Write the structure tokens for this entry.
Amino acid sequence: MFWSLAALCFAMAGGFAWLGYWPALPFAGLEVGLLAWAFSALRSRKDDYESLVIEGDVVVLDWHCGKRGGRRELNRRWARVECKCRTPGRNCRLSLCSHGHATEVGQYLNDEARLQLAATLRSRLHE
Amino acid sequence: MSDAAHAHDDHSHGHPTGIMRWLTTTNHKDIGTMYLWFALIMLFSAGTMALLIRAELFQPGMQLTNPDFFNQLTTMHGLIMIFGAIMPAFSGFANWQVPLMLGAPDMAFPRMNNWAFWMLPVAGLMLMASFLLPGGAVAGGWTMYPPLFIQGGISYDLTILAVHIMGLSSIMGSINIATTILNMRAPGLTLMKMPLFCWTWLITAYLLIATMPVLAGAVTMLLTDRNFGTHFFNAAGGGDPVMFQHIFWFFAHPEVYILILPAFGIVSQIIPTFARKPLFGYASMVYATASIAILSFIVWAHHMFTVGMPAAAQLFFMFSTMLIAVPTGVKVFNWVATMWKGSLTFETPMLFAIAFVCLFTIGGFSGLVLAIAPVDIQLHDTYYVVAHFHYVLVSGALFSIFAGIYYWLPKWTGNMYNETLGKWHFWLSVIGMNLVFFPMHFLGLAGMPRRIPDYALQFTEFNQIATVGAFIFGFSQLLFLAVVLKTVKGGEKASSRVWEGAEGLEWTLPSPAPYHTFETAPVVK
């Protein structure tokens, strides 16, 4: 869809530019640029995921975000849940900490769901 | 709409309230609601202008306005109805329904969605405020043709800026809708299983993205001709005003389909529901929509047969225009075939959908008449053309909007609308609309030109009928406003599957649809 739209936009604007009515061309360029950004932003994020598995004494964090990704294993007994909110209940950042390292979790959740996850994790880690 | 709709939700914990909620919202339902209210306000504004026009035309001679103000009214009526009422209303439907129909949690770019909406009131205010400027609002016709558009006062610059802003808003909205449809469908929901409303919006978004740079370029050239000494369209400096018409209609003919394709989508959702049968010929509907979109790029010059063009070009544009009747005919056939032997019931959305099929077809037929070059040369710039495009845009686009509002309002608010009032609104609208626009065919055939505040005596009776119809049609929209406000406020509670024959993911949600929906994607088998 992107390539057909880009080709059509440039063909039409190019045609008018060829006839001397060039101001359509920069608008076509800007628009195709915006379209390219939109499609590439979605493509770069299409494989994003975050997984958190608690098995016995091990907590496994696995994530892929844009071009970054990683995996971390934590000892369940040492893992701590940290949830910091800039204002009560808003702009919360949820992390799992162990041995001086913090890993953010719940990036794809809204504040409400993040707080819920924090509560669930606290009870699961220490049950 | 959504205050009532979301009253029971707990979304507001820690979120902005009051005006900040609406200014900063990225929720597709909030933004859809804002689009629809904005469109309604613009509909009433431009509708009031239409009533002033019709009041002036009630009898020959000058009564209420002067010729310049009359031209301002016709120009602003067209611009506001197209860019301020019909297009935003369909964007409102897309915002509400596309994520719900696809099983997506929201639009692909929620912040861009917010910006796309908030540009519109700015542009709308600029357009309306131009009435207050020295020299008044633009009076050169909604088509913005030079030389009139090069010669006017400051309001012409303001209108060009407003059109730019509205164009940018449309591009952002279209990119959002297209990327949402292409990337955020629920697992198992293939393109050919998608509701037809989503298909028609995908194709509409394609058309909008393809043609908007042409409009932006055209109005920018007008601006530079007016202010920076260029002569793209200024004949005095060697420019070509006719070329503006080519460029403008290269944008504006696809724009006509931008205004009607989402209407096809809405009607294609409603008719199967109230016929209690699946849509007849789903695949052919998709291909017909795509064919109409493709053909829309090669018919632009049928709007300008009278400027003079070679006979071969006239023949090409005449036959290519006639060709559009084929896929459109496929659609009308499929809607009728869907109703054929169905268990029909006639609730308000279905009544509007049936009126759409019948009356839009009349508009289509008069379009075929106008496609014939020698006939068009006779009828060009007469009331026949006004009758034609109002049958397409009022009984087509606007009636489908009414149908869609009645159809989905219970899902949005959680309350059923008042069916009796809805039916009153329908019958008054249908009778009023036909009284206004049908006599215009006769006026046009008799030679009454459009965009004139005074006319010869022989046109009086048909003009009087049209004016009476306009006031019936115009004031019956207050009934529509009353129905909507009453439904938002309360009423009989709607079930999740509001209509017995309704199919699709949106009907699996409770009514009103919760503030956040499909956070876990549904699986479509």
